[in-house]
């Protein structure tokens, strides 16, 4: 991330100028594709150099398409793949008469793939214009231009007193502002040992402490709502169905570290997230929970929602900050960490959405009550997990840590539908290892999953049933990995493409060469994308070598 | 901390004192240890993209990139660690695989490939699309030779302040372009040549008066000599 360009942006941001990415997104919405005039205008209003704007315009999926009058986005995420083996993608191409990434010659229809719409409970999913349709009969409805909005099943909690799945009522912020004060609040968050829910599991309190200690008095809080992990729709539920909890978490972080402005970066694949949050912000301002001098405490806090434009790696925190500022969503080497130099070159807390949603409870009830939510394990708090369409009862569930994966799959989600059985699970997203059915008694917890080469990640539990071809799974994951590589570090940029091409061919995979490549990715990659894709590949090599056609 | 504000580090058995903020790569250079780099230029902020400068640091669970890792007091660094070198070699082999031809021996990439004994690649597959910008009087761009190290973009930004260059695309399709992708001539390029000077692959080269002669001779079928000029002449 160029410090010079960020400084140019910061000055324009100070006078409320839109980012280059926002201008480019609006142009695509308005006339279907970008022109050089759009790019020049984006440069002018954002303060960015024209070349840098050109770079942005070639990075994000949403900016690359040439939209027809009817724009169809078919989900090719892992849950949709697990449901149909991508048959729905080929069927829609055939019904619409256009290939992925194309617009019909007469301009009436365009088709792109998208990963993922977060309707993994009802796969396969599609977005036709503004309507997201999913489930049986979807392809026929696309053919007939009669898509209907798919329902989202209500979430459930296994906790006697749910924490994340009940509407936020601001009790934590009230107590922090009127009783605790910023230092005691931060101490409670540190004592609660909240581990990040976005994948890395880093202690949230540590990030807050570093940011609080950073010298610059202007600081920011950023909620990472870029839940790009295919198969996961947890942050989507939180942002759209419980936005107050997230806004409260942001305000608490701001109060604890001394920031007056928070941001949420939402995904364009979740078109309902930004409107839901914007509406909640308006309500919170009316009710006095956001804005100036909250509860007469002297604490001011504002929240701005920014929507991304189609890039998985933007979920990585430095790439997220780049996107937030309207730059290419590429990863930056750390140090400097965001706590030292983040948004607009200022100290910044970047926390996952679900992580921040835990903070209201901790502020209201304290670290001990938080630890008691998961009595059977070292890990504190509750966790949201979600299941894919292969299960009998797929939705978001709030669970304590420490249950076995088998209990979650069989007792909570009801096992697989249609008499199918679990062949393997991918937990926590595409960078998580793959757990074979023989290991279902593993505990759902950070350390226990890590011991099996897996992770809690985002908390998605995605089943591949007994009819799944595991080489196709490998090819699917590598295709996603290569497409989403930001292109910054060399092992990921080139290596994932090479690995994908080998698996997608009809050739046998050269195991020795492939394992050397996995090592270079694991040890060499700049971020968890290139470093993480090898995890499921290692699992597949360990548990399903016979299906990979190795030599 | 040892004496005053200095840190004590050991590079390949050599102990030295460095100032806080010194990177492992800078310390290694002072100890005269060789670490391969592709995206690094000491006139620019470290970028951490190429991942060939990996080294072993005692106590670290895996190799670390020398260019972006700050020295800590009592750090023990091994620049010749077998695992780190294996990663660097694998990455250079991947880089060679994305180019339509072997790197020219006089380029930084060519020299590093030679030193790491990467003579060929085991990765067949797509190479970068050919694309040439030869309209500018002093600068030539051959996009198929670009390895997206970002040095030219940073030179233009950090050294010259012209902001004429940008990274483009994503993943394997990443590249670099000038302005709104219409070439150096139609960008804010000030012809300083900092991009060509730092380019490790000859994707961007300076056109000299001699090149004009070479081009002319090439048209007449004469051998133009150096490969870098021959590629330009082939347009």
State the helix count of chain B.
7
Level of helix content of chain A? Answer: 40-55%
Count of domains of chain A: 5
Reading side by side through the largest sheet of chain B, how are the strands ordered?
Answer: 2-1-5-3-4
Largest sheet of chain A: 6 strands, mixed
Which pair has the most extensive contact? Answer: A-B, 49 and 54 residues
CATH topology of the largest domain in chain B: Ubiquitin-like (UB roll)
Rg of chain B, rounded, reads 20 Å
Task: Furnish the topology, listing elements before pairings.
The complex is a heterodimer of chains A (551) and B (235).
Chain A: H1 3-13, H2 20-31, H3 36-46, H4 50-57, H5 61-64, E1 70-75, H6 78-84, H7 87-96, E2 102-103, E3 109-114, E4 125-128, E5 131-134, H8 138-143, E6 156-157, H9 171-192, H10 204-213, E7 220-224, H11 234-241, H12 243-257, E8 261-266, H13 273-286, E9 302-307, H14 317-324, E10 348-352, H15 353-357, H16 359-365, H17 367-371, E11 382-387, E12 396-400, H18 405-412, E13 422-427, E14 434-436, H19 446-451, E15 460-465, H20 470-484, H21 490-504, H22 511-524, H23 528-532, H24 534-543
Parallel strand pairs in A: 1-3, 6-12, 7-8, 7-10, 8-9, 11-15
Antiparallel strand pairs in A: 1-4, 2-3, 4-5, 11-12, 13-14, 13-15
Chain B: E1 7-11, E2 14-18, H1 24-30, E3 54-57, E4 64-65, E5 75-78, H2 82-98, H3 108-115, E6 132-133, E7 139-142, H4 151-160, E8 165-168, E9 175-178, H5 194-198, E10 204-206, H6 209-219, H7 227-233
Parallel strand pairs in B: 1-5
Antiparallel strand pairs in B: 1-2, 3-4, 3-5, 6-7, 7-10, 8-9
Question: What would you say this structure looks like, in words?
Answer:
The complex is a heterodimer of chains A (551) and B (235). Chain A is α/β, with parallel strands linked by helices. Chain A has five domains: 3-58, no CATH class; 70-143, Glutaredoxin; 157-371, NADH-ubiquinone oxidoreductase 51kDa subunit (Rossmann fold, 3-Layer(aba) Sandwich), CATH 3.40.50; 388-458, Ubiquitin-like (UB roll), CATH 3.10.20; 470-547, Up-down Bundle (de novo design (two linked rop proteins)), CATH 1.20.1440.230. Chain A has helices at residues 3-13, 20-31, 36-46, 50-57, 61-64, 78-84, 87-96, 138-143, 171-192, 204-213, 234-241, 243-257, 273-286, 317-324, 353-357, 359-365, 367-371, 405-412, 446-451, 470-484, 490-504, 511-524, 528-532, 534-543; strands at 70-75, 102-103, 109-114, 125-128, 131-134, 156-157, 220-224, 261-266, 302-307, 348-352, 382-387, 396-400, 422-427, 434-436, 460-465. Chain A is globular. The mean pLDDT of chain A is 96. Chain B has 235 residues and is an alpha+beta fold. Chain B folds into two domains: 1-127, Ubiquitin-like (UB roll), CATH 3.10.20.740; 132-233, Alpha-Beta Plaits (2-Layer Sandwich). In chain B, strand 1 and strand 2 form a beta hairpin. At the A-B interface, helix 1, helix 3, helix 4, helix 20 and helix 21 of A face helix 2, helix 4 and strand 8 of B.
